[in-house]
Amino acid sequence: MPDERIPGKLIGAIVAVGSLAFIGILTETVMTVLFPQLMREFNVDTATVQWITTIYLLVVAATMPLSSYLNRRFKHRTLFLAAVALAVLGSLIMIVGHTFPVILIARVIQGMGSGVATPLMINIILEQSPRSKVGRLMGVGSLVITVAPAIGPTVGGAVSSILPWRAIFVIVIPIILLVSLPVGLKCVEQHRPTEEARLNSLQFVSIVLALCGLVMFLNQAGVAVSAAVSGGSATVSAVSAVVSLIVGLEALLFFGWSSKRSFSPLIRLGWLRDPMVLLHLIAYMLLPIVGIGFGYVITNVAQLSLGTSAFLSGALVLPGALIGAFFAPVGGMLYDRFGPVRPILGAFFAAICGPILLLVFSMRLTPVTLAGFYFIFGFGYSLGFSNIMTNALRNIAPQFMPDGNAVFNTCLQFGGAAGTALFSTILSVAQAGAGEEGGATFRHATAVGGSWTFATMIGIVAIAICCLIAAFRIGAKRNSRL
């Protein structure tokens, strides 16, 4: 029998690369709890400050489609060193940057690093794990990715309550250079030859334009509405929104058309002709709008409406986020035992109760009820979300699995970026003309914006549930014909 022990160097490689992915996701969620503080420091509004998170998620989403090409073209160690360099450079700029555009540049660089590190960790696990241990190690990789957003807001609130917010990045750099880098240099190995793969740059540019255009549309449309509500000029923002929408849709259509005609497309998309898989993908893109956007909404409603500290607002996210991190494997066990329908639909019927309760009590929330109702959502979301991708990929031919992974992960990142842009827009519209931050009128307006946000979340989750129900009906009809 072959040796099924997990090699020590594989564990070291997962620790080294996984720590980079962990730090990237951690700093992304840390920033959300700092938005009110950053708004004051850089003199920007809610719709503008959210670009610190949105642009990071966009860059990660734009890098994900490259993961297959990078994995074939470059050695793992080369990609690891690139991720380290990008993470350190981005952190250094965050420390010394004192204007908002410079901070955005730093977030772009950090997003590139995370966009390289996260798929690299998954590729190392898939390529080098003993076959009987792949599921276990993939669970470890998933835990790395899910624990970081769980503790991010709490870490951000704790650090900012006793130190300047830039101290977060001062702490990160030694961890990368003294832990991740030496362990990775010793343990990251190459178990397969590289290929002379070619990058379809035109398709890559088109997918980046599509992602940026669509998220920019959400942001600028919100700015335009907010300006119109407050009596300002909305012309420039409205024109920007329309242009962004046109560019985004045309770039997306071009990407799809080009992929069909290309001999070596960046991502093969033929498997999306299956309506059952497509419906799973739509649900998988919609749900992170709520799942990732919740971190922004909870921390900002807590600070700007309930008047909590940054530390407490971050702590409110922790119970619901941690339950999400540690119950994902339980959801997978239920999937293996009962199939997809009951575990997935049952999970999201439970999850939708969270935003329903938040809407019902939106104008009389307390920190405890805010955290408790989010906990309900986090529990259901964690049980069902990862199973959507698992079930979809089971219906894709094996040769298209890398393409499916790339598309699903890109949609996950896009959904998160869109959620932050959408919900910050809704809050910004509600706050327009409500006076200075901290006043009673501003707090009431934020509470109203929160109620609008929770209603929007209910609609998004309901649409995702309908897509999943339709997908399962298609699957049941297919099975009945067999």
Summarize the structure in words:
With 482 residues, this protein is mainly α. Helix content is 81%, strand content 0%. The chain has helices at residues 8-33, 35-42, 46-49, 51-63, 67-73, 76-96, 100-128, 134-162, 167-187, 201-229, 235-261, 275-304, 310-338, 341-351, 353-360, 367-393, 401-431, 440-481. Helix 1 (8-33) packs parallel to helix 8 and helix 6 (76-96) runs antiparallel to helix 9 (167-187). The longest helix is centred in the C-terminal third of the chain and has 42 residues, at 440-481. The two termini are 37 Å apart. The model has no long low-confidence stretch (mean pLDDT 83).
What is the topological layout?
Layout: H1 8-33, H2 35-42, H3 46-49, H4 51-63, H5 67-73, H6 76-96, H7 100-128, H8 134-162, H9 167-187, H10 201-229, H11 235-261, H12 275-304, H13 310-338, H14 341-351, H15 353-360, H16 367-393, H17 401-431, H18 440-481
Helix pairs in contact: 1-4, 1-7, 1-8, 1-9, 4-7, 4-10, 4-17, 6-7, 6-9, 7-8, 8-13, 10-11, 10-17, 12-13, 12-16, 12-17, 12-18, 13-14, 13-16, 14-16, 14-18, 15-16, 15-18, 17-18
Q: What is the rounded distance between the termini?
A: 37 Å
Major sheet characteristics: none
What is the residue-averaged pLDDT?
Answer: 83
Low-confidence stretches: none
Q: Label the overall shape.
A: globular
- The helix-strand sequence is HHHHHHHHHHHHHHHHHH
Helix vs. strand class: mainly alpha
Number of helices: 18
